[in-house]
């Protein structure tokens, strides 16, 4: 079995975690894991031509005891000529001020501290001391809890303009303790790591010994599993992004997805697509679960032309014919009525203008127009739809409900309350621009007919 130093060196080389000339800051608590990593990298400074720095954060949970740990790490660094940067931050005070759980606040404060430390030393990378046993615990916890991600602790990941690397993922706790004993590091011990009130500690004390009894190299198998799964996931995620590129659109209020194109994707890509969309909308905060993804997938597979689903933090997911809409902003219905007479020009709130003229406009895709017959009573009105609206379509007998027209033309519900409706002074519906003209349109442009012009911006 390889030693701690041999394993760490091979792992760093295999993943190219640290190279010549790198400036590496190490997050150091004073415990065996981080102290061994700091010692190892400091011993490699000359051979690898790297610079090594130490970052220590005192969370101030244990008063004088945690302060003594800070001083211990400081003295450890002084004795080995390792530049040292530390801060003391009251996590409990931060929790009261900002809210959030102990784990959430501690992690946020810790990584902000790391960023300040990296900036202080002009470092390139942050090395953290998560090891093989941590990997076994993490993967097992993710599987038991049903977490969305089950790939464990990543070997590397971005942190702003820096990179986080974890060189110890191929060594276990026994190797770390042997290294500390061999080099007489005398690490500090945090008693909270033994308390069974924490989930990870229960996994560590109850499951991990069983796994190790079955296989001494279980940490290596879990690490390989994590790496292989991460590689597979990255490939499938890249493929999903490629497939999504042409079937969804993003804007400030949310996004829309083409349903039929989405349904043609393989199921593994569909799941990842929904996850990517939700992750984008929630900006990585992930208040959603596997259940929410399954709900959306189930509804997208149904033949219903419309439905709505409420997700955490006010996100609405709704099917509107050929589109699935994701939005935090459901616009309120805004009614409007504009009066229009000869020579007038009014601006429609949702883009475009209406005018009454006595001459046809130049032929262009930017215009729609309707020649009004002499029986139309002026002034005209441009307004929002109303309950019971009907139109007498040109070339058809009888009338048609506006509601049915919208359904037949597959106008999504969100646009129906915005769509401009043109009536005469008696309320007769003359025109639904972009959809249907009424029998009140003149068939010929000969004579002195008024021309209703819609200068459209979109539809």
What this model shows, in words?
This protein is an alpha+beta fold. It has three domains: 4-230, Rossmann fold (3-Layer(aba) Sandwich), CATH 3.40.50.620; 246-327, 2-Layer Sandwich (Uridine Diphospho-n-acetylenolpyruvylglucosamine Reductase, domain 3), CATH 3.30.465; 337-456, Phenylalanyl-trna Synthetase, Chain B, domain 3 (Phenylalanyl-tRNA Synthetase, Chain B, domain 3). Helices cover 40% and strands 20% of the residues. It has 15 helices and 22 strands. The strands form five sheets. The protein has a six-stranded mixed β-sheet with strand order 3-2-1-4-6-5, sandwiched between helices. The protein has a five-stranded antiparallel β-sheet with strand order 7-8-11-10-9. Helix 2 crosses helix 8. The longest helix has 27 residues, at 218-244. The radius of gyration is 33 Å and the shape is elongated. Keywords: ATP-binding, Cytoplasm, Ligase, Nucleotide-binding, tRNA processing. It catalyses: cytidine(34) in tRNA(Ile2) + L-lysine + ATP = lysidine(34) in tRNA(Ile2) + AMP + diphosphate + H(+). This is tRNA(Ile)-lysidine synthase. It comes from Bacillus badius.
For the biggest sheet, the summary is: 6 strands, mixed
Q: What strand order characterises the main sheet?
A: 3-2-1-4-6-5
**Rg value:** 33 Å
Distance between the termini: 69 Å
Low-confidence spans? none
- The overall pLDDT average reads 87
Instruction: Choose one word for the global shape.
Output: elongated
* CATH topology (fold) name of the largest domain: Rossmann fold
Q: What's the total count of β strands?
A: 22
CATH class of the largest domain: Alpha Beta
CATH architecture of the largest domain: 3-Layer(aba) Sandwich
């Amino acid at each position: 079995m390889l030693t701690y130093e041999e394993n760490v060196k091979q792992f760093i080389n295999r993943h190219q975690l640290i190279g010549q000339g790198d400036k590496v800051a190490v997050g150091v608590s004073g415990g065996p894991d981080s102290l061994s990593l700091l010692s190892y990298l400091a011993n490699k400074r000359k051979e690898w031509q790297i610079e090594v720095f130490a970052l220590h954060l005192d969370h101030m949970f244990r008063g004088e005891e945690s302060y003594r740990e800070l001083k211990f790490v400081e003295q450890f660094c002084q004795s080995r000529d390792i530049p040292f940067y530390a801060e003391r931050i009251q996590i409990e005070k931060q929790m009261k001020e900002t809210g959030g759980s102990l784990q959430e606040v501690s992690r946020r404060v810790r990584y902000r501290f790391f960023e300040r430390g990296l900036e202080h030393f002009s470092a390139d990378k942050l090395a953290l001391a998560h090891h093989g046993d941590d990997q076994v615990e993490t993967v097992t916890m993710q599987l038991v809890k049903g977490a969305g991600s089950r790939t464990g602790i990543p070997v590397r990941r971005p942190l702003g303009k820096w990179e986080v690397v974890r060189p110890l993922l191929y060594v276990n706790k026994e190797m770390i303790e042997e290294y500390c004993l061999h080099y007489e590091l005398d690490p500090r011990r945090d008693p909270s790591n033994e308390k069974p009130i924490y989930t990870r500690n229960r996994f560590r004390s109850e499951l991990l010994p069983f796994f190790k009894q079955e296989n001494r190299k279980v940490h290596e198998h879990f690490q390989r599993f994590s790496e292989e799964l991460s590689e597979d996931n990255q490939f499938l995620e890249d493929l999903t992004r490629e497939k999504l590129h042409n079937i969804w659109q993003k804007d400030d209020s949310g996004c829309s997805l083409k349903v039929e194109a989405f349904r043609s994707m393989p199921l593994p890509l569909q799941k990842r697509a929904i996850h990517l969309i939700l992750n984008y909308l929630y900006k990585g905060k992930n208040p959603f679960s596997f259940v929410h993804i399954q709900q959306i997938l189930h509804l997208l597979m149904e033949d219903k032309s419309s439905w709505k689903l409420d997700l955490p933090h006010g996100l609405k997911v709704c099917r509107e014919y050929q589109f699935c809409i994701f939005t935090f902003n459901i616009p309120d219905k805004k009614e409007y009525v504009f009066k229009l007479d000869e020579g007038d020009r009014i601006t429609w709130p949702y883009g475009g203008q209406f005018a009454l003229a006595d001459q046809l406009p130049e032929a262009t895709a930017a215009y729609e127009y309707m020649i009004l017959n002499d029986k139309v009573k002026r002034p005209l009105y441009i307004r929002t739809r109303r309950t019971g609206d009907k139109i007498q379509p040109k070339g058809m007998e009888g009338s048609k409900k506006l509601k049915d027209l919208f359904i037949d033309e597959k106008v999504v519900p969100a646009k129906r309350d915005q769509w401009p409706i043109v009536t005469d002074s008696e309320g007769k519906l003359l025109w639904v621009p972009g959809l249907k003209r009424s029998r009140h349109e003149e068939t010929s442009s000969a004579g002195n007919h008024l021309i209703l012009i819609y200068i459209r911006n979109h539809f």
